[in-house]
Write a structure and sequence with these properties.
single chain, about 210 residues, alpha+beta, Multidrug-efflux Transporter 1 Regulator Bmrr, Chain A, nine-stranded antiparallel sheet, 6 helices, 9 strands, about 25% strand, globular
Length: about 210
C-alpha cells in the first residue's frame, strides 16, 4: 500500500526559494488545530504540540485501516498579532498562534472524537506526560482557507526571520499593491531538536489581498 505524502503530491506548497517571494493560490486544507498566545518557547506551546502529534497519528491509524495510509505532514503554525510589527521586533508576548498538522480532507468529526478518546485514555495512564487532558481537549478539526499568498523559504534560526518579514511587509507587499488577508503561516521542514539552527528550513507564507482605497 502506497502512502500519500503531501510534501511530494503538493510539492509547490511545501517548497520555495530563499530570497524570493512566490505568489501562489493555496487551496483549502484540513488540519488538527490548537490555539494559544505568547512565547513559543514557553511550556504552553510545547504542551500544544505534544497534544497534536498523538491525535495526528491516531487519524493516520484510522485511514491506514481503511487502506488509505498517509505520511504525517510537518508541523505548521499560523501567527498573528494586533500589530504585525510584533514579528519584526520580536515582541513574543503579543504573538497569537495556532499550531496545526494537516490531515486528509476526508477526516470527519466522529472519527476524530474516537481518536481523541483513545489518546485521552493512553494519556491518563502515563506518568509525567508532556501534555494534559485539557490541552488535548482543546484540539479541533478545522479547515484553513488562505487563497492568494506570497511564500518563500527561510534557512536559519527562527529568530532570524524578522528582516525577511520586514522586507515582505515594507517592500514586497506594497510594491505589489497588496496587504494582509489573514495570519502569517509557517511550515517547519526541520526538527529543531535534531537540526542545527543555521540549517533549519522553514516555509514562510503570507495570505494577501489587494489594497483597496476608501
Amino acid at each position: 500500500m502506497e502512502k500519500l505524502d503531501y510534501k511530494k503530491r503538493d510539492k509547490v506548497f511545501y517548497s520555495g526559494k530563499q530570497g524570493r517571494w512566490d505568489r501562489l493560490t493555496i487551496p483549502s486544507m484540513t488540519y488538527l488545530m490548537i490555539d494559544g498566545q505568547g512565547d513559543p518557547d514557553a511550556p504552553g506551546y510545547a504542551r500544544a504540540i505534544s497534544a497534536l502529534y498523538p491525535l495526528a497519528y491516531g487519524v493516520k491509524g484510522v485511514f491506514k485501516a481503511k487502506g488509505a495510509d498517509f505520511v504525517v505532514p510537518p508541523l505548521e503554525a499560523v501567527w498573528s498579532a494586533d500589530d504585525p510589527s510584533a514579528f519584526v521586533t520580536g515582541d513574543r508576548a503579543a504573538w497569537k498562534w495556532t499550531a496545526m498538522i494537516r490531515v486528509p480532507d476526508a477526516a470527519d468529526e466522529n472519527a476524530f472524537e474516537m481518536v481523541r478518546a483513545t489518546a485521552l485514555g493512553k494519556l491518563a495512564r502515563k506518568a509525567d506526560a508532556p501534555t494534559d487532558a485539557e490541552t488535548m481537549l482543546s484540539v479541533r478539526l478545522d479547515v484553513l482557507n488562505e487563497g492568494d499568498s506570497l511564500q518563500t523559504l527561510h534557512v536559519g534560526p527562527y529568530s532570524d526571520e524578522g528582516p525577511v518579514l520586514a522586507h515582505l511587509h515594507d517592500t514586497v507587499m506594497p510594491d505589489l499593491g497588496l496587504t494582509f488577508a489573514s495570519a502569517h503561516h509557517e511550515i517547519y521542514l526541520g526538527d529543531p531538536r535534531r537540526v542545527a539552527p543555521e540549517r533549519l528550513r522553514t516555509i514562510l507564507r503570507q495570505p494577501v489581498q489587494p489594497i483597496t482605497s476608501r
